[in-house]
């Protein structure tokens, strides 16, 4: 039976940040289900329309393998998406992984969810400007970071973000995950051979 990974969707969602992860999650092990505050269509930053599968208030950590939070202009527009940060807190409290990229990392920073976990972002100054953030000592300068059940990345690192997600969910064995990353990050022809050989 397939497990479910939940992808948060909201207006101004940054399309490119989760595509590598979701495209490679769907398969024999996982399905991706979109979750929004309402079932109304949302429009991404790139102008794509998405019809959400379920509403945020019906989402339980017990029914999920992971919650993925993409960036969006709305994360920096105030507290419009604080319900998603609150849900991420529920997931982390239950030991269910959360993956956040770009502005979603700032939303989790404002909610205090980074204070005790290793994390990264676009730049540390971006998080230092967030009210409620007290996790500067746990900031790691890296493309993407897994700190316990929390995965974080900056907006320019969708491939590294996907690598951490695919690794955390055991989608590929370590050698295949390394080849996958080298192929999509660096266009490494040797990595393509490894993947085709499997």
TrEMBL record:
<dbReference type="GO" id="GO:0005737">
    <property type="term" value="C:cytoplasm"/>
</dbReference>
<keyword id="KW-0378">Hydrolase</keyword>
<dbReference type="InterPro" id="IPR029062">
    <property type="entry name" value="Class_I_gatase-like"/>
</dbReference>
<protein>
    <submittedName>
        <fullName>Putative intracellular protease/amidase</fullName>
    </submittedName>
</protein>
<dbReference type="InterPro" id="IPR002818">
    <property type="entry name" value="DJ-1/PfpI"/>
</dbReference>
<dbReference type="GO" id="GO:0008233">
    <property type="term" value="F:peptidase activity"/>
</dbReference>
<feature type="domain" description="DJ-1/PfpI">
    <location>
        <begin position="6"/>
        <end position="166"/>
    </location>
</feature>
<dbReference type="Pfam" id="PF01965">
    <property type="entry name" value="DJ-1_PfpI"/>
</dbReference>
<dbReference type="InterPro" id="IPR050325">
    <property type="entry name" value="Prot/Nucl_acid_deglycase"/>
</dbReference>
<keyword id="KW-0645">Protease</keyword>
<dbReference type="GO" id="GO:0006508">
    <property type="term" value="P:proteolysis"/>
</dbReference>
